[in-house]
Amino acid sequence: MSATDHQPITYASAGVDVEAGDRAVELMKDAVKATHSASVLGGVGGFAGLFDASRLLAYKKPLLATSTDGVGTKVAIAQAMDLHHTIGHDLVGMVVDDIVVVGAEPLFMTDYIACGKVVPERIADIVRGIAEACSLAGTALVGGETAEHPGLLGEHEYDVAGAATGVVEAERLLGPERVREGDVVIAMASSGIHSNGYSLVRRVINHAGWALDREVSELGKTLGEELLVPTKVYAADCLDLVRALNADVAPDAAPLRGFSHVTGGGLAANLARVLPQGVMATVDRGTWELPPIFRLIGQLGGVPQADLERTLNLGVGMIAIVDPASADAAIARLTDRGVASWAMGTVGRVSGDAPSAGADFVQGAKGVDGGAVLMQGSYAS
Questions:
Q1: Which part of the chain is the PurM-like N-terminal domain (predicted)?
Q2: Spatial distance between the Cα atoms of 307 and 327, rounded to a whole number of angstroms
Q3: 88: burial class by Cβ within 10 Å (0-12, 13-18, 19+)?
Q4: Does the pLDDT of residue 87 top 80, yes or no?
Q5: How many CB atoms lie within 10 A of CB 324?
Q6: Strand partners, 284
Q7: Other beta carbons less than 10 A from residue 181's beta carbon
């Protein structure tokens, strides 16, 4: 049997629509261009994004910082609700806020979207969200890729990932080596669940039989709307705090010691990563009240507190570690920028009886043999 006995096989018949991809680019390109400064060369659609790095010549010793991430199974909520304009905020927050932890300014970002079928409007919604969040972070979106994978992903399925690059002066690098005993641990409120723990969250709501369009009085919105609240992007706020506290101070005396981005693993594990060995942060749960969504997940699923704490951010999305003399100024600065913040603990030495606290004590995390965190007390009611 010859090939002429059959309909010709084309790329389109194999499930890939090149023209749909082109339409998606047309729909998104204005949003992408809005993130570009004079440092971005070329335009949308090139093989590589170009960024003028001449400003790095002014650095004594520029260190490049890079990070890559996705948003996990939160995309399943967006797909179920057919709402895709916020997931880009989640992606940007997960990537650029890892970079600012070391005091680096995120310069540019790229994204990658894999989908079963290119629906131009859906792809454009995703990228518009990425561009909006990049603008909030002061980061240029210099390139990206949309890949159609029929047969691998369902028609309405997609996943997103991104990477960003930033820069910090070597002598201004933040990190564990700057943390001192007596420092204050400052919490910055999260906007919601952010982008971690959705495998647990989805399992709980499915087990409870709750629909995403269910109105939940304590949330003031539907369950699905709450679950899609985008990740808060802290980059601009953190960099503003660095400039306010550290800019005119000798590096060794800089009062802002570092940040911790509360992502997978929860508050204690991520805070422990930015503490030096032998040092312990004691966190008082009583300094904040759990937001309703976290209480709801715990109650619906009967999830133990220890499991909630090592899975979800529980209302704290970013942490700053600050010299005690500058703690009030830091909180005031963040408050002025609309970031709810409060002193949640202090830094000291690891006490001998701390390891006996069981799940309340965390030492080292995610492959980092760093400091320790002791969670104390009960959450405010």
A1: 63-168
A2: 30
A3: buried
A4: yes
A5: 14
A6: 376
A7: 11
Q: Is the pLDDT of residue 22 over 80?
A: no
pLDDT in tens, 181-212: 999 999 999 999 999 999 999 999 999 999 99
pLDDT digits (tens, 9 = 90+) for 94-107: 999 999 999 999 99
* 266's tokens: 């929860």
| pLDDT at residue 84, as a whole number | 96
Instruction: Answer yes or no: are the C-beta atoms of 280 and 380 closer than 8 Å.
Output: no
Cα separation, 86 vs 177, whole angstroms = 36
Give the C-alpha separation, 174 to 172, whole Å.
6
Classified as helix, coil or strand, 27 is helix
Shortest CA distance to 301 belongs to which of 213, 206, 224, 214? Answer: 206
The answer to whether the CB of 89 falls within 8 A of the CB of 129 is: yes
The 3-state secondary structure of 290-348, one letter per residue: CCHHHHHHHHHHCCCHHHHHCCCCCCEEEEEEECHHHHHHHHHHHHHCCCCEEEEEEEE
- Residue 185 bridge partners (DSSP): 321, 345
